[in-house]
């Protein structure tokens, strides 16, 4: 059963709640994982689903954690027309938490850049 808004507010920080539940965005170069290099996996802070592996992380220069691939089936997309632009929002396939956006300017082999808010992630070391 999904947690209520009150339960999520009690468990998550204000920033985690704003990012994951209201499509917020943390400031660039401010999140815990934008320059994180430890081996392991990044999980959804809301439901603990494994989303990204450290082997797919790269330095995009944007100030947000960036990955060229997601764990199979863990992330879905939807069209985002907010802020006067059209982007592809990425969300956790399990719980629907907002993670960030995906762009077609990443490195090989996928050519994608999953630009993710650190506030939506929980890191689990190898």
UniProtKB/TrEMBL annotation:
Family: Belongs to the MsrB Met sulfoxide reductase family.
Record's protein name: peptide-methionine (R)-S-oxide reductase
Co-factor requirement: Zn(2+)
Gene Ontology MF terms in the entry: metal ion binding; peptide-methionine (R)-S-oxide reductase activity
Cellular-component GO terms for this entry: cytoplasm
Reactions catalysed, as given in the entry: L-methionyl-[protein] + [thioredoxin]-disulfide + H2O = L-methionyl-(R)-S-oxide-[protein] + [thioredoxin]-dithiol
Keywords, comma-separated and alphabetical: Metal-binding, Oxidoreductase, Zinc
Organism: Botrimarina mediterranea
Residue intervals of the MsrB domain: 5-126
Pfam families referenced in this protein's UniProt entry, alphabetically: SelR
UniProt xrefs under Gene3D superfamilies: Peptide methionine sulfoxide reductase
InterPro entries tied to this protein: Met_Sox_Rdtase_MsrB, Met_Sox_Rdtase_MsrB_dom, Mss4-like_sf
Top-rank lineage group of the source organism: Bacteria
GO biological process annotation, one example: response to oxidative stress
